[in-house]
Amino acid sequence: MSPSQTIAVLGGNGVYARHLIPRLIGAGYAVRALVRRPEAAGLARACGADVRIADMFDEEALCAALDGCAVGVNVATSLPGPSGRGDYQANDRLRRDGTPSWVRACTRAGVPRIVQQSIAMVNACGDAWSDEDSPASAATEERAARAIEAALEMERIVRDSGLDRLILRGALFYGPGTGFDDDWFSRARAGTLRLPGDGSAFVSLIHIADMADATVAALATWPATRTLIIADDRPATWRELLSYVADVAGTTAPPPGGRLGLPSFRVRNTRARASLAWTPRYSDFRTGLAR
Predict the structure, then answer these.
(1) Counting C-beta atoms within 10 Å of the first and last residue's C-beta, which end of the chain has fewer, N or C?
(2) What angle, 0 to 180 degrees and rounded to 10, lies between the N-to-C axes of helices 59-66 and 99-109?
(3) For 42, what's the count of Cα atoms within 13 Å in the CB-facing half-sphere?
(4) CB 168 within 8 A of CB 116
């Protein structure tokens, strides 16, 4: 698609958007950042984005904000992070109840294409390798299971919208602004870092910069109606990941016994690499956590 077209980014003051918007503008796109709180959209505004106030549950405001846009990118989420921000129940509502409002607004505003952020955990199959066709196994706890169910419902709504769409299933975000790596290193230095369970479960990661790069690549190549996993090349066990964190922090390896939280997931990025002509700059956590 033409770099001169206008891209609307819903959730324009979130961490994903704060990495995505400067890249879109650098690629030549006009960007319209759709936010609930304009006072939190300083980075978007400083980059040159057009900031519009629009709540996901206010269809009329969304229609007005989307007018004239070629693509709507929905990165709105409320999944909890280490900082304490976010709420599983609010995230479920965004995905189950907010997504219909979003796709109706895009349809009414004449936005022909949408990109939807989703989560790679929907393809969690324990320790086995999985891809976009793999059904999710049972999650380790109720909140994670509900988050997966809500993401699948969100994806169904997007697929049934009749719009030209891409669904990008991101692995676990880390990197600047996400809070995850800062939290791991902080707890390692404080002696409070624990392995989830015995540390043998897998986690698939994606550096937030690579997630943003993949999204820009998706807009440039537009492999229509695809669902793609965006993850790094080498998933790791929690023991590998957090032992490395402790080693870099100069502390002893973390003991087992922490809350499991996420299901074990070990996903492939093969389709995204082929479809988007994209390669993660941080191939694994060792490169992404370099300090």
Answers:
(1) C
(2) 40
(3) 2
(4) yes
Contact 219, 159 (CB under 8 A): no
Strand partners, 196: 258
> Which amino acid is it at 214?
A
Residue matched to tokens 């989420």:
77
Write down the pTM of the prediction: 0.94
Q: Between helices 142-159 and 99-109, what is the axis angle to 10°?
A: 20
Q: Name the pairing type of β-strands 50-53 and 113-119.
A: unpaired
Q: What angle do CA 160, 123, 100 make, to 5 degrees?
A: 25
Average pLDDT value for residue range 76-87: 66
How sure is the predictor about 16, in pLDDT bands with cuts at 50, 70 and 90? very high
In tens, the pLDDT along 17-60 reads 999 999 999 999 999 999 988 887 888 999 999 999 999 999 99
In this prediction, residues 61-76 reach a mean pLDDT of 96
Domains of the chain from N-terminus onward: 6-288 (3.40.50.720)
- d(CA 8, CA 69) in angstroms, rounded, equals 6
